[in-house]
């Protein structure tokens, strides 16, 4: 019987302890409410309260991550893109956080969305897609310190994704493909132009080389002809009058043996007939020799 009474007393004490005491965890604070009205702030540890009259609301002061659901924003050039944002925040004023707003977290999210729409709304699509770092910075400056309103401080904001709509993405892919094809066509045209230029240069060099070779051959032939004529003239200078007289006789003898039976010549220049024959003979010998 005695043990039963002791057991009941222990149970009653445990229940009273659970009702009268509240443990506030590490990195948290407790807001003591008396009959629903805020009374004071309690710190970490075991805290007393009056059962049924008072309660302690525990508020965490630790850094908390929050990912905002993706939502649509419109750029300056009326492009529809989806935005996904992640932020980290912590409570700086538990009283304002709990009593100054019915839902401080939701209010903070709405504020972030509104500022993000305003920032991206002043940018064109290509600028927005390539400026996530600047958007993060502008958004952090726009939000600032939310302690005075919601008792919250946003420590970090990050734009996880800015994704154009399916229609805009398809249009961008088409434009990108067209740009690549244009660049490829330009490169091919430049290559063909360079090839034509090189071929024309090679042909010009070949023509110049051929012209130089022909000029050298003509010069060599002219030099040879001049040399041959000089030799003939030198040979004629060394011949005496008797030689030419003998050649004249031989020439008339040859004419006499030919089918022609009439020769007309200047009587005063009969001796030149031999010279002509000698000249013809020497020229003929030179030609056979060459």
Helix content: 55-70%
Low-pLDDT regions: none
Overall spatial form: rod-shaped
Series of secondary-structure elements, N-terminal to C-terminal: HEEEEEEEHHHHEHEHHH
* Beta strand %: 15-25%
Please tally the β strands and state the result: 9
Main-sheet strand order equals 6-7-9-8
The N- and C-terminal alpha carbons lie at a distance of 157 Å
Provide the residue-averaged pLDDT. Answer: 78
Total helical elements? 9
Task: Write structural notes for this entry.
The protein has helices at 2-20, 94-99, 104-121, 125-129, 132-143, 147-150, 166-238, 241-257, 271-289; strands at residues 21-24, 28-34, 37-42, 45-48, 54-60, 64-74, 80-91, 145-146, 152-164. With 290 residues, the protein is α+β, with helices and mostly antiparallel strands. The strands form 3 sheets. Strands 6-7-9-8 form a 4-stranded antiparallel beta sheet. A 3-stranded antiparallel beta sheet has the order 3-2-5. It is rod-shaped.
């Amino acid at each position: 019987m005695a043990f039963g009474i002791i057991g009941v007393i222990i149970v009653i004490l445990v229940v009273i302890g659970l009702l009268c005491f509240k443990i506030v965890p590490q990195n948290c604070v407790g807001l003591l409410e008396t009959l629903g009205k805020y009374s004071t702030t309690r710190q970490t540890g075991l805290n007393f309260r009056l059962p049924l009259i008072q309660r302690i609301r525990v508020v965490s002061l630790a850094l908390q991550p929050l990912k905002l659901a993706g939502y649509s924003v419109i750029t300056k050039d009326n492009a529809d893109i989806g935005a996904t944002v992640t932020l980290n925040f912590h409570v700086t004023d538990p009283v304002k956080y709990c009593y100054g707003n019915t839902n401080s977290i939701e209010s903070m999210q709405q504020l972030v969305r509104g500022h993000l729409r305003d920032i991206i709304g002043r940018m064109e699509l290509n600028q927005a897609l390539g400026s996530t770092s600047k958007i993060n910075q502008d958004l952090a400056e726009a939000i600032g310190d939310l302690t005075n309103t919601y008792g919250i401080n946003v420590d970090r904001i990050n734009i996880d994704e800015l994704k154009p709509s399916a229609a805009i993405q398809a249009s961008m892919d088409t434009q990108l493909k067209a740009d690549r094809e244009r660049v490829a066509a330009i490169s091919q045209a430049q290559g063909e132009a360079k090839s034509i230029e090189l071929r024309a240069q090679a042909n010009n060099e070949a023509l110049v080389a051929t012209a130089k070779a022909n000029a050298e051959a003509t010069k060599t032939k002219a030099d040879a002809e001049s040399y041959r004529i000089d030799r003939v003239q030198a040979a004629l200078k060394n011949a005496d009058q008797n030689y030419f007289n003998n050649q004249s006789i031989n020439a008339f003898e040859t004419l006499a043996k030919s089918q022609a039976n009439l020769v007309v010549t200047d009587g005063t220049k009969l001796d030149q007939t031999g010279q002509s024959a000698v000249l013809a003979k020497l020229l003929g010998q030179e030609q056979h020799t060459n």
